[in-house]
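MODEL INPUT / OUTPUT PAIR
PAIR INDEX: 1
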Amino acid sequence: ADTAKQFLLALVANYDQSMYFSELYNSPAFFDAPVKSGNRGYPGVKGAKKMRDLHNTWFAKDPFALPGEATDKLKGLRDAEKWSTAVGHPGPSSPAVGEVFGTFVVPNMMANAARGMKPELAIEQAEALIKIIYAKWREKGLVGGKS
């Protein structure tokens, strides 16, 4: 448990680097987390004290825009946490939700239907897989509810 706590603390403390070096694919979960001072391995952002400062600056002017590409193309995503939802919504996230998301159950279901599988069968197969995933995590005591 202590190692997990240390990992989470280190992750949050260094998320500025995660965001920058992922080319803005990773956005912070904790926008009010402070940004460490000093050389962080990326061009500094004047006045940045919190993750939100970096996020807003980089999303207003994308430092990774390709030549000829609009640098403000991410501007509309600066407040995404206000209008988007976390995986698992409206319920809480869980290991089962993470596995369903991470193994592309829903996108694969849609792809199967788009490729000619009867939509009802695609849904049935996805539901069966989701039930297997949830049962596995229930057995481990990490997800509540019934089968």
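PAIR INDEX: 2
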Amino acid sequence: MQGPIKISENGRYFVTAAGKPIFWLATTQWQIFREHPLVEVELILDKAKENGFNFIQAMLLGVGDGTKPNIHGDTPWKKDDPATPNEAYFEHVDAVVQAARRKELILVAGIYHQTMGDRVKMKNARTWARWIAGRYAGAPNLIWSMYPKAEPEYTALLRELAIGLQQGDGGVHLITVHPDPAPATSSTYLHNESWLAFNSIQTWASVDLIYPMVSHDYGLRPAKPVVMAEGAYENGTEYGFEVSPLWIRRQAYYSYLAGAHHSYGHNDSWRMLPTWKEALDAPGAKHLSVLKNILLSLEEWWNLVPDQAILVSGGCTNGRSLNLAARHRDGKWMIAYFADKASFKVDLGKVGGKAEAFWIDPRNGESISIGSLTGDTKYFSTPEGWEDSLLVMKATK
């Protein structure tokens, strides 16, 4: 990894320092900096990479107000004062950052949460942010994040933190804001802030808000990448519905086909339950690895454009069970996701009126050829026995 990642020229996706597109698929490991010894850190990172995750969202000081010691008994700040960081704590952070760098994984590191309000204030926010950014100015695998409430009263503090971050590292690392609690998006008060590199959305249990919130942020100008950064966690019990692998797939496809990037989480990991190791290989995580491979197989995947007009009939953008579609900006392919059984009509003109079509099972990536299609529109029904379905068409000459 030669340098910190950047934003594409069109403001839609992420690129390497050399300009190569990067597919964002994140997992949340909020406690990795504080609650795990290095041997566990290595396991978590290895499993993340194995399952296709290339971004790790984590709280630099762990979940909470920033006062809790790490596994070695070291607190982040001396006397709970952000102006006096504790070297011993950050030596462990150093090791985590270096381990992720070796594996070419990017850490989205949270430096502030609204629960730190009694400690991180206007008088010390810039000092704290400048110090942490300066310490990791040379780390190519970091993005800075902040977690306020989505309320205007936090704007001044966030600006102080952002100034400090950019003073500390010269502005080389991207900065985002991940509002908490949900449902919320950073765009509400901050979209036009020059330091905000991309918008982050949290929907938590509100699966029905993923599409409208992503679509709203996708349509803003200037264009900035949109990350659906936190939804319902796999195996979570607090949402009023079972967060099964199907719901993990639905949330992710809703995000990508609305034009966003997506982040996954597992209940047992962030809550540090005894089963956290097993959660690293949860079915939902495996299914998102399948999703990534499917989308990466599309020529110039980064040129995906949401286009619900592809579905002449049978599309659905409201509620929790959606039927969504997107295409290559030049019509090289189209992809549609159906969260349940569906019958629908497709506009073949979106791929030039001639295409090879096939179904893909989102659970395992297995495909069924439909064959060559020509004409203006075609009717379809999803395959029998599938929980959800993908229809892919690739334009032919």
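PAIR 2 NOTE: The chain has a mean pLDDT of 98.
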